[in-house]
Every structure is written in structure tokens, then in C-alpha cells.
Amino acid sequence: MTARQKKLLFRILAALVLFVILVILEKTQILPEKYNRYLFLFYLLPYVIAGYDVLRKAVLGVIHGRMLDEAFLMAIASFGAFVTGQYEEAAAVMIFYQIGEWFQGYAVGRSRKSITELMDIVPEYANLEDEEGNIEQVDPDDVEIGSILVIRPGEKIPLDGEVISGDSMVNTAALTGESVPRQVRAGDPIISGCINGEGLLRIRTTKEFDDSTVAKILELVETASEKKSRTENFITRFARVYTPAVVAAAAALFVIPGLVTGQWLVWLYRACTFLVISCPCALVISVPLAFFGGIGAASRIGVLVKGSNFLELMANVHTVVTDKTGTLTEGNFIVTDLIPAEGVSKEQLLLAAARAEGMSSHPIAKSIREELFKERPDQAEFLKTPEDTENVSGQGLIAMMEGSRICVGNDKLMQAEGISYVHAEDPAATISYVSQDGIYLGAVLIRDTVKKDAAQAVRRMKEAGVSRVIMLTGDRHQVGEAVAAEIGLDGVRSDLMPEQKVEAVETLLGDLSGRQKLAYIGDGINDAPVLTRADVGIAMGSMGSDAAIEAADIVIMDDDLMRIPAVTGIARQTVRIARQNIVIALAVKLLVLILGAIGAANMWAAVFADVGVCVICILNSMRLLMERGD
Amino acid sequence: MKKKFKCEVDCANCAQKLEDAIKKIEGVTDAKVNFIMQKLTLEAPDEIFEDIFAEVIRTAKIIEPDTVISEK
Q: What ipTM score was computed for the predicted complex, to two decimals?
């Protein structure tokens, strides 16, 4: 609670105590009859204690020509009550109005705090090591790129960097929601916001604090609520017309029946009940607060949602389109079989393939290299970059190596090169044929394994309301079909070139109607155009990848597929809560307006419709944030 | 130039009104009042930023007398 809130709370309590004493005195008629004409003055006391700042604001509002200011409306409503002789209600209106204001401030403060606690990743200091090896504690903001930092056991990693010495397990839970620590050794990159385990680490920073993961994530979460959902925009527009409309209705309610019946005081009282309900605060706060809660709940499981609008879109996702490699599969390719041509040894085949691929970072090249080193660790030093390589898109590669021409690729490449090869068949594997100087050497079968929980994640997505899950892959048709069957997907588009993925997504978008949305899940590295084209772009396994964080709308920090159904569930609940709030607030206000007009609702009912509803909506919105996640 | 300030406002509707008013100040490129984070993000050309900020404070005092805007 801030000092301001404490002061207001104290004033409210004082006014409330005084108010209750006065009501008891009046109702029990302890107060001698002769004092009754001073009752007005007695009730004025708690009224002023609770609401002097509202009155001040009302006066200032009038001076500046703003008649529709809430403070002014509250002042008029309570004055009206005094005029009609309802002293008790006049004081109550002011006291409860202030309770509503106080509660709003308190609730929002709590929400803010629970989000910042959740994002308890901000490092307070960094241990900077200078050339002589002296260690000094400095502000992370002041650390330059390339500085050496020492991280002791249990400390937060203050900036992104690279480990230069030490060996430890780091806890990434605050960033990814993943509780299993990750091992780091010299040479590994390390990300700010993680917590060091038992070992002592020395790191060289690779980024300034403002560009480090921690700063980026905080910035994201803080600004997420500024990207407003459609529901919120609707409410904001609604609020702009709501107050003037209710005030106009109040004026009409006072003047017209007043002129007709001449019972001015009766209609003044009814008009004042209208004014009490004229503040749209419950609506204006509860919707963004619900989305704020949803975004907070998502970040607790390591999912960053970049705006309220994306959470809202996620709630309406009908089609999920996903990349294959690295998203549904582990992205770890393993050589599963070698089929050498006659008279060629397995080792010769592997060696030729490995030489052509050189030190390429392509996953297939890596798997071939690993297989070779398993058999012949001594070869590691002989592998060098080929003199000349040509990547044939969608076919494979051709490398020139010590005067010979090595081709590694699919059927198309072999046909194009005019090589008589033996076609191999394995539905789930990627097959690379190898030839050297026009002579066929054999085939290398490489497989990627499907993630353990992929099938379960797809099932859960369906339970969370997704209608179809479709995979896009650059792989062969058979490979795609095999993976789709294993996971239980609704469709596959295979043999796609990267640019065709955008077209495939556009076709799928065309199938959707009305509010149905499409989400695309990828690793965010090669598929930025697709991520942008989809209604919601989701990047996975993004910890530390700026490109992914940049391109996606929703960022999943680790590569756990189960986060997708989880965040879909959160999105749906958030939208449900926001709708509930709108319905509750509007229904109660409308009901009390009607009852007030016909004289069936008094000012107490109006106070409930204003403050009570505000409190209910705020509590409802905070539900998501207060629920303790798994 | 884009800069963030601490901005204490009392209610969500007031924050919205404040944002609307600040956006209308001449020279302001963009402004956001984030009630939940109690933050004001002001974007305006560098050379007149100081003047604009002074005007923002004046406007805030008129719209919501209790508003406190301060550098973080």
C-alpha cells in the first residue's frame, strides 16, 4: 500500500466509524428530539472527512469547464441527497465512492506487485572483475560488452554472455517455467535472469544490460497491456458515451417529470441515484486487468504474450499450423542406416558424405559428422571446408574436394547428375544419396525423432478448443505423413520450399470464417515471414534468440509443446472473465437505472451498482493472477 | 524521443482521460498512460521535448489534480 492509499484508508475508516455511530444514534432515537434539526450538520462531518478531496476536485473541474468529471457528478449526487433530506445516504454515497476508489488502487497495486514478483529476474548487481583480478560490485547497467563477471553460487546471472570458466547447473525457472536445471560449461552461452547453482562461473558479457534477455522480457511484459484487446477498445469507446448519456438521462429525469408533477424533490432524488451510477470505472478497469492477469499467468509458465490483443486472438484459435523440424520433432538428426553401393565400404560412404558437408551447421551435415566421429574419432582433424560448394535448393549439395566432385542429395539431384543410383525406401527417414565423380557410393538414412509429448500436446490443444492441427514441412511426403500419423495430426503439407509455407498458411487462412483464427508455431529462425502472416505467430525454444522474440507474437521460452494448450486455456479463461465482467457490470447498472427511474431503487442500490460491481469485477479479474500455477 | 515516466493516477478512467488529453497536446507524437503499471510513455521530437513535458504536467494538473508525474 502506498502512503496515499494508507491516508485514504484511514480517512475512510474514520468517516465510517462516525457514520455508523450517527446511524445508531438516529435509529435508536437516543438522540434527543431537539437535536434532529442539526442532523444535517452531524452527517456533514463524515461526509467531508471522506470526501473533501473529491469536493476539491469537483470545484477545480468546474473551473476548468469539465462538468462530466466523476468527482463533480459525485458531489452533485450527494448534494442532491442532502437537499432532499436524505443525509444518511448522502454521507454513505461519498464514503462508499471512496471505498471503491481505494479498492481499485489497492487491487491494481496487488496485481502489479504479483506480476513483478513473478518476473523476479532483475539482477540488482554484477560482480565485475578487472585485469588484476579484483572484484567489484557494480550496477548491471554500467557493465560494458566484453567485461568479465564472476557469478557465485545462488546468484542471478546479470547480463547475457558466454561462460569462460567454471561448470554449474543453472536454474532457468523464472524465464522458462522449467524447473529442471540446465548444465553450463566453458564456451556455453548463458542468459541473464537464470540463477546459478552450486558452481562458480566466470562469464564474458556479450550484450549490454538493455539488450539482455532480462531487460527485453521486462519491457515486453510491461508494454503488453498497452496493446489493447478488441474487448478493451470497445469498453473504452463505450465509456466515452456512457457517462454523458447517463448524465443526460438524469437531467431529463429531473426536469420533465418535475415539470409535469411538480414533485421536484422526488425526481431530484431519483436523478441523483442516476448520477451515482454514471461512473464507468468498473468496466474500464476490469477488462485490461483481466488481460493483465492472463499475461501474468502465461509468463509464469514461461510463455511471453506480447499484447492483450494476441491473448484474445489465441482464445479464438481454430487452426494451429506447425513447423515440423525442431517444433514437433527434437531436431536432432541421427544416421539410422547406411546402404553402400556394391564394392564400397560403409566407412568410405560416410567419409565422402562428411567431406562434402564439411563443417556445415545444417542438421543433416551434423548428424553425418557425428556418425563418422563415432566410428573414426581420428577423422575430426582431417575434415575441412570444401574448396567450392554449391547448394542446389530442394535437392542437396555439390562440393569440390581435392579435385573430385561429390554430390549429396535426394533422388532429384541424382537424376539431374545422371547417376545410376539405387532408390531406397524408408517412410520416416530423410535419404541422402552420395556420389563421387559420377560414381554412386550409396545412401545415408537419417531420422529425426518426434518429441515425446507431441501427441499428447496435440490432444490437449483439441481439448482446449482447437479444431485442426496441420503440419508444414520441407521434407518428403512420406516423411511428413509418417510423422503426422504418429502424432495424430489433421493434415500435412510436405515438399514445401520456405516461401511456399507462407502460401500454405494463406490458403489455410482462406478456409477460416468469422472469428476463427490461425496460429503458426515455429522456431522463429527461418520462418519469420510465416510467423508474421499468421494471426498469431508463436515461436518456440526461443530463450536467448532475439530474432524469435522479435518476430513472434507469443514466445515460448523453452521448447515444451505442452505450453501451447496451456496458453490456449489461459487465453480462453481470460476472455471469459472479461466478458463476465462486462455482462455483470452492464446488467446491474441497467437494472438499477430502471428501478431508480421508477423509484423502486434507492441510493443504496445505486452505491452497490457503482462500487459493489467495481469490487466484484476487479476480484473476478484478479482470479487468474492469484491462482497459483503448477 | 521516447521516454518513460512514473505516473500516479487514481483510476482507470482518469488514466484514459489523461492519455486522450496528452495526445491532443500539439507536438506530441504519441502518448500512453498505462494505469496498471502506473507509467506514462511520452514520444515527442527531441528539440521540443522539455517544453512538451512541461505542458504535459500542466495538462495533467487540469485533468486530474492528484496526478503525480515524475522521472523514474
A: 0.77
